[in-house]
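Section: Multi-chain targets

For targets with more than one molecule, the full set of components is provided together so that the structure can be written out for the assembly as a whole rather than chain by chain. Components appear in the order listed by the source. The example entry contains three components.
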Amino acid sequence: MFNLVGLVPLLPLAAFAAISLGVWRDRRLSTYVALGGIGLAWVIGWGIFFATWGQSGLVEHPFRQTLLSLPTGTSRLELGFQVDPLTGLMLFMVPFLCLLIFIYSRGYMAGDKRYSRYFAYVSLFATGMLGLVVSDNLLFLYVFWEIMGLCSYLLISFWFEKPSAYRAGLKAFLTTRVGDALLFLGLLLLYSRTGTLSFAEIFREESLRHLAEVQAGLPLLGALPLSTLIALLVFGGAVGKSAQFPLHVWLPEAMEGPTPVSALIHAATMVSAGVYLVARMFPLFAAAGPGNAAMNTVAFIGAFTALFAATIAVAQNDIKRVLAFSTISQLGYMMAALGIGGYVAGVFHLITHAFFKALLFLGSGAVILGAHHEQDMLKMGGLKSRMPVTFWTFLAGTLALAGVFPWGGFWSKDDILNEAFHSDLWIIYVVLSLAAFLTAFYMGRQVSLTFLGKPRSHEAEEAKEVPMVMQAPLMVLAVFATVLGLIGVPEDFPILGPILGSNPFHHYIGEMLALTGAHPVALPVNWLVLGISLTLAVGGLAAGWLIYGRKPLAAGQPDPLRARLGPVYTVLENRYYVDEFYQATVIRFSLWLSEVFAAIDSRWVIDPFVNLVGRAGAALAEILSRADSSVLDGAVNGVGKLVRAGGRGLRQVQTGQVQDYLLVLVTTVLLLLAVFLVL
Amino acid sequence: MEEILGTVPLTWYLTVSAALFCIGLYGVLARRNAISILMGVELILNAANLNFIAFWRYVGAADFDGVVFALIVMTIAACEATVGLALIVGVFRNRRSVDLNNLDLLRG
Amino acid sequence: MGFPILSLVTFVPLAGALAVLLLPAGNARTIKQVAVGTAALNLVFGILVWTGYDRAAGGLQFQEFARWIPSMGVHYHMGVDGLSVPLIFLTTLLTPLALLYSAYTIQTRVKEFFLLFLILETGMIGVFAALDFVLFYVFWELGLVPMYFLIGIWGGSRREYAAIKFFLYTLAGSVAMLLGILFVYTNTGTFSIPEAAATFEAIRPFASNMTVVSLAFWGIFLAFAIKLPLWPFHTWLPDAHTEAPTAGSVILAGVLLKLGGYGFLRILLPVFPSAFKYWAPLIAALAVISIVYGALVCIAQWDLKRLIAYSSVSHMGYVMLGIAAGAYGLGAASGQDSVAIALNGAVLQMFNHGIITGALFLLVGVIYERAHTRDLREFGGLGAIVPYFYGFMLVAGFASLGLPGLAGFWSELFVFRGALAIMPIYAVVGVLGIVFTAVYILWKIMQNLFLGQPNERWLNLPDLTSWEIVSLAPLLAFMFFFGVYPTPIVELINTATTALASLL
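Its structure, encoded as tokens over all components, is:
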């Protein structure tokens, strides 16, 4: 089974190649090719997942396959694919979600003029994500990481006639590129210090110990263990891809792409690649001991982002934008969990979140399509009766996200809060709890505004349920969002724990911790944490409903929070002005610098200097040529003139009178005679 | 005849010859008429002939070198006069003049 | 000595030029057929050189040796190793494609154009194959003259300025190089490059002759730095590239710039390893400036062709960074593998830049032929109008910004991997370049050309014709092929760079 791992990313790649090289002419065939590629990848992916489920020893000795071997001086760089529990888990989640979203897209994208191209792009995207999870080395991971970035760019600006779409695509690519540059540096540093990039070799005990012991001196930061430095650089990449503060700005705008893309890339899979990266590199992060700078950075940035994005989500009116900020916030949760050492909790949340967030996005896509491309929640309302399937599935997603028992999010979020509560960083726990409350609140607000009350616009009035091809994925996802959390129910949870076995998820993925030398410990159920978390979730939803659902807004009525929060609301609505800040500083400075350099090049310094040298040369030549004509030419011409003058003089002798010549002759003879006689 | 020859020394012949030559030279140099110049040339040639004969008679009578030379000179002179006159006629036909002052096409 | 494949690959274009010379000027069609045919034939020889080179053995192969000017010790000495084989192949690949493209676009003074172009090819391949200083210099200059005329006659509106600037810059470098070569000759008594490399440092140890050896070093360096071009000797490039006819730009960016990079590796590094190592930090600094500065200047350009010209400054900066890092790492404790990796990256980057920028210039030519403008502000929305052109530009553009899966990525990876191990600060600053590269490729080129509402003015713009696709497709194929499977070319280059890595 594991031998087929190479096919998992290659099948969608083949689909992409086939569609771009000609199949695109036939839209129907393009769909089948794309579905065929991802479908087969899904079958193989699940096959591999279930094969890993029972197999032990995969962590220390993952199944590996070498694909590329590059000579590097006297050594070689070996790159390939691998299978271990984390890979298996991702292969459970990624191809399945891809397949569902491909199916959903058939309905959503029907009638688009670039329909075939869409399927080519998403197939390439699937290649990127699947390749990423099966890579056995950081370089391949980076390669596929960037391919996903490319697809993200192409898909966000898919409707490239729209300025907002192509600007968003550009912003997404460039923002993540900043993070990628850091990841690239981390990769290079790791490679140059260890001579290898394969996970198995980096995570060997002695190489990790070596990395943790070597200190790297840095300007400003002082000395850091090498492992921490590399981990921080790698985390830079994760910050970009997973839209953590301060590189979060691209994700909300990424919603300009088609909604299935938002679901697939910007909610379920690609953005969680950052979390996957941290999870994959976890032994390196943890190498310098618990609570080292790298781990703490991850924890604080994650927790801060979780709260930061949740507050913004409260004040957004675009249905997809709320979900986008919610995604940022939830990714922050996962990061925070990993940062405090809650490896299993973080990965658990990654999986459950992928399902329910995909569900929510697809639900919002259904709403948008049903409501004739209206995205402003203030103009919706009353869709519950008009789009019942969408409503009920969306509600399942909402409960999962808010963390209500027993939906998926409850288990994973509670796991994270529990870990945070028991960690040394109590502040993380407080922040995450606050974020949990806000999450429930904005979801309550969203459901109330969108589905309850009366329609506030013509579009909402006319809304119709979406076709079956889109409903089916919603329903499948709703089931998963509801029950998936049960694979991670704590062992000592009353009734459910014993029934469901001894927390199989924890055992499965917890094995990965063996690489850090730690033994996975499942925390006992903490009823205090659990109670608080459940109270916050229910309370948040209730608050949302109280403000927006009990007394539905009238058409054109502003958000009631606006009056109550005043300027705070404005700040939140404008996302803390982070975009404006970047625009005014980084971007403007870069553009200014480019103009200055261009001017230096062609107007101020270099070219003027070159031209000056050129002119000086020309001037010198002019002077020399003058000197030439007066001195050298003078001499030459002088000879000529002399000859000419001589000729003119001698010409006088030549009278043409034969007698004159004769006279000269006679005279000369006489003279010679005289000379002869005298001598 | 013998006596005259015996009494007239060589110098006299030479003097006459020199005078003839000078007259001829003068004519060649000073006259502007082409015909006159030709006549001057004849005088010079005859002066030479006189010299040849005089020297033959007084110095080396054993052979006939001097006489032969004189005869050749006379032949040449005849030819020269013929060609010269023909040229002058040609020039005259073109220029309607035989004045050497006008014939200076080769002037530098 | 076996079959003289190198003489063949070098002089076949010259023979073609002779044939073109003998054809009547009025017969443009035949001239074009002969020229393209000759170049295509030469591609076969280029491939033979590649496939015939024994990678396992490495070293200089296909050597040819003949007496030329015995009294001065000048020989006709040709030979290739892993450095030259890819570049010879690149030349023989780009020339027929550029000529094919020109066959459809050049209408004036056809005979002279193809004549000069074929002479140019001989000059370029000769440089890559020559192992004798004088021979090298002769070929070096042979390439200069045709290019001068190509720019000066078939160029754009400021062609005279650009041609003169190009000529003077290069000539200034050549003079300095000649002095340097003569210095090496007077000390070693040989014009043979491998011999000089073996003996020069022993005869004139750098440590005890710092000033004079450095002077000779910088003299030769100047010639190659101008050709590369390295900041601040680069300003001939934007003008020359912008004004040159499309095929001229392709060859200029695709091959002529590589003469500089090749010179560093063939002559400067082997002959002056200690001097190079000593000056490497300064050179690396110039390289990093080239990378970042070049990329930033690109962002400020509105003329598409000029923008791509400046991108060459930035991308060739990677080459210089790789070579400088390699030189700095010679004999250091950080290990020879890092040196070899850096040099691998530099050579690979030369090859990749050749195919990528060659393709980009062809694409610029395509759009200019149709729209008669290169001002990015006048375009927009072409993505929907000319999808094939969009697709080709997308691939070439992403290859240029170093997207993994396309050829440009591997060379950037190797250059930065080598540089980070040897001179980390420079590498860290240089990585900024890859961010700015993304800015100008995606924002300036892609967005301004293709995205947005279709501009009324260009609604009837025709898409790529079949012969344009034929000129471009091989380049794109190589971008994909070496992007996915770089092993063959890296192995080839690696044979030469491992030898260089053990210089000190």
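The first strand of chain C starts at residue 61 and ends at 69.
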